[in-house]
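FIELD: query
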Amino acid sequence: MRLSVLVITREGGAAGFVALSGLRAALAPGDEVIVLDEGSSDGTAELLETMLAEEDLGPEITRRAVLLGCAPPESDSGASIRLGLEVATRDALLILRGTDSPLAEGISAARHRMAENGASLLLGRALPLTETAPAPERVSPADPWRLLPALPPETLALALAPLPGRCLLRRSWLLARGLPSPKPVSDEELHWQLCLAAGPDVELLDTPLARIAVAPSAQPLTSLAGFGRLLRQLDGPEMHAAGLLWLILRMERQIPQLTAAERWPYAQLAATGLAGLSAEGWSRLTDWLGDAFRDWPVLAMATALRKGDVAATVAAWTQEAEAIRQPSPATLLAGLQERMAAQEALIVRLQDRIEGLARIAEYRALSAFSSDREGP
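FIELD: result
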């Protein structure tokens, strides 16, 4: 199966083409590389043709540059993909950002998996640029990837939207379904749109396809408003369980980032979304996740919000935020010890100075006494 690799870049100059320089090992004869510039104004666009001509991507690789001319709306994550799809000619579309560092082994595995099973959409992991494996402290106790052997991929795929990843899309399927749709959508809504359209033709590959610069979490209120639109498309306990997992994974990431002004409206939006999920969905997710889920702190918050306890939940968030801002006992003790050490050093310097002044005074007194005795 041949790939059309769509590399999307905006600003950044030559630094915006990390993906291009790392693609050679991931490509096979007959693949094509399309670099699409989203209206850069810093000279990045002018570098496209030069870099495509000079970069050694291997034999029989078609390459082309596409200049969008202006940046698409921030709210429309599908704009560049729609344009890239019009230009692409190969079997599947791999979408990378210019700053991604492709992982050849993962891309090769994804290519062969999609060719073997005929999947319309294949989702793979992505790693932060600075890490070679997920940091343990960043892995949620309810990490959806660990549920992969137990759940149908179409059920689990929705929950992966808050987590970094990259995907392969079958070109003929996208064209037949008119995807991405012309309606502007956010990153997560595009993810849901693709997953819901693929249904059982979703394939999940627990292998990283690239190292990426992980973007800050989406605007909290906008993200939860988007969940309300997704909720209307979910049917059955399995899909409700997947929606619940998405929502509380998002809450886990966003609650610590909320400002004081955002906490109350965020809690209200979350409460509305949680209340709209069926009891069967909650039960199904609890069964999936087992003991790890029962000890998950964000679950208690989600349960309270589902019951309508908005005020108590917001108060708990505020109290936790204040506690984080307060120095810990260990920090206070370390500061006190540092100040005591500084005081002790000051006392030593003062003692040395006093001793020096005493010697000077003694010398002057002796000198004066000697002068008196040697007088006329």
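FIELD: remark
Residues 329-373 form the longest helix (45 residues).
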